[in-house]
Amino acid sequence: MKIALIGYGKMGKAIDAIATAKGHEVILRIDHDSQHLLDKEHLGQADVAIEFTTPETAYHNIQKCFEANVPVVSGTTGWLEKLPEVNALCEKGHHAFLHATNFSIGVNIFFEVNKKLAALMAAQPQYNVWMEEIHHTQKKDAPSGTAITLAEQLLASVDRKKGWVNDETQQADMLSIISKRIDPAPGTHTIHYSSPIDDITITHTAHSREGFAAGAVVAAEWLKGKAGVFTMRDVLNL
Ligand SMILES: NC(=O)C1=CN([C@@H]2O[C@H](COP(=O)(O)OP(=O)(O)OC[C@H]3O[C@@H](n4cnc5c(N)ncnc54)[C@H](OP(=O)(O)O)[C@@H]3O)[C@@H](O)[C@H]2O)C=CC1
Ligand SMILES: O=C(O)C1=N[C@H](C(=O)O)C[C@H](O)C1
Fold it and tell me: Can you give the residue ranges of the Dihydrodipicolinate reductase N-terminal domain (predicted)?
């Protein structure tokens, strides 16, 4: 498969290594200073584009992929208020788009555990619940996209919480997401349920970026030749 990498930082380099080792050809490595390659002449040569950039640039990069009619896998977080608009553009133009806040198999299993535990806790108001996410100090956004996904899953079941806030809070109806930035943390997410009688805590800890990168390559392999809007749940058949 011919792959265009949009964003060649920590994730772009990790994906390059895994994709190349699997026998794919990385034909473009587009970074901040190679924006001229974001056109049909160049992008159109790829089977799939994989985009891991910044909250400020993901939307534009994805649009350029649609214009070049190249399927795009995006993992960039911190811009997802625009996701509904991107999904609509994809459907309207019969493009192919797959986004995930976290591409690791472990976190996608953790998502399923989170939803099940939240459903069980819906009828147990004696438990308070809050979250914590820990990442490296270079991370631009907070809370993490993964944490927001976890919070949205939890809020869909636990209706004693009306929303989330990225800080400690004394508001009983708000879900607190505490963000910590500690090097070299690749990504740790914890959900705490606490009652006067006991605590239940679930945690996912990434040891490196390998799981994110490997999952993104699998998603790109899955997306090739398809049209529509997809998530990692489609790839993993969850
Ligand atoms: N979904 C998932 O599984 C995961 C998602 N992520 C997310 O991916 C994103 C990137 O993470 P990470 O790789 O660690 O970040 P890095 O900062 O290491 O890499 C981002 C790269 O994108 C480049 N860039 C900036 N603007 C553009 C642009 N317009 N076009 C092309 N490249 C550009 C940056 O260049 P420069 O430095 O010159 O600005 C940098 O090299 C973040 O949003 C992060 O949250 C991270 C890991 C897993
Ligand atoms: O910036 C990172 O590193 C990560 N970002 C993603 C997120 O915001 O959830 C995924 C992973 O936690 C690593």
Answer: 1-103
